[in-house]
């Protein structure tokens, strides 16, 4: 036993060269994980979860895309308009849009068209925890058909002018829509 211990100590007695690099820092606490927001197949982008002007703009783009995403789901069993509500607070128009999709789903409607082109955003105004985002967006022609395939309604392409107001939700670490205004340009 003494011989083994002596060999171990002897092996350690040779001079070592100093390290040329510093050890890397080890994190002692895990990074906080954010609650997932949005549909599983279309989650809120990380940039929209930053309390910055860029974060508010990313959320504005995402919310308009989410409306398109939800509309495309109408007529399929997977439709879920809840993310539109979950990413809004006391937003009447947001709730009306979600209710319209759910009503269309319950009636077996299918939507074709109504895609929103890339929005043209005006000057973003951030004041404290509130962001006001003006925009215009072209919506393509819409056709709604019933479960029997008969046309229920159709509308031509329109230019929509509007704006969104977002409030920063520090609990969810995300911008939440509190107001959405849309006016058809004539």
* Reported CATH architecture: Roll
**Number of DSSP E strands:** 8
CATH class: Alpha Beta
Supply the helix-strand structural class: alpha+beta
What general form does the structure show?
Answer: globular
Order of helices and strands: HHHHEEEEEEEE
Helix percentage range: 25-40%
β-sheet strand percentage: 25-35%
Note the main sheet. Answer: 5 strands, antiparallel
- How many helices? The count is 4
Ends: how far apart?
96 Å
Query: How many individual domains?
Result: 1
Mean of pLDDT: 82
Description:
- It is built from four helices and eight strands.
- It has one domain: Nuclear Transport Factor 2, Chain: A, CATH 3.10.450.50.
- A hairpin with a 4-residue loop joins strand 7 (158-169) and strand 8.
- The chain is an alpha+beta fold and 186 residues long.
- Strands 2, 3, 4, 7 and 8 form a five-stranded antiparallel β-sheet that branches. Strands 1-5-6 form a three-stranded antiparallel β-sheet, with no helix packed on it.
- This is Lipoprotein.
- It comes from Klenkia terrae.
């Amino acid at each position: 036993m003494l011989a083994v211990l002596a060999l171990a100590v002897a092996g350690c007695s040779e001079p070592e060269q100093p390290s040329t690099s510093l050890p890397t820092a080890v994190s002692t606490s895990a990074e906080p994980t954010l609650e997932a927001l949005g549909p599983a197949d279309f989650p809120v982008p990380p940039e929209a979860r930053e309390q910055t002007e860029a974060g508010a703009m990313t959320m504005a783009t995402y919310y308009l895309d989410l409306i398109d995403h939800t509309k495309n789901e109408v007529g399929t069993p997977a439709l879920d308009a809840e993310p539109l509500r979950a990413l809004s607070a006391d937003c009447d128009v947001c709730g009306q849009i979600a209710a319209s999709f759910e009503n269309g789903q319950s009636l077996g409607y299918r939507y074709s068209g109504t895609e929103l082109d890339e929005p043209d955003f005006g000057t973003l105004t951030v004041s404290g925890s509130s962001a006001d985002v003006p925009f215009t967006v072209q919506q393509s022609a819409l056709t709604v058909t019933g479960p029997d395939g008969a046309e229920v309604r159709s509308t031509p392409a329109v230019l929509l002018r509007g704006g969104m107001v977002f409030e920063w939700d520090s609990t969810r670490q995300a911008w939440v829509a509190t107001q959405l205004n849309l006016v058809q340009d004539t």
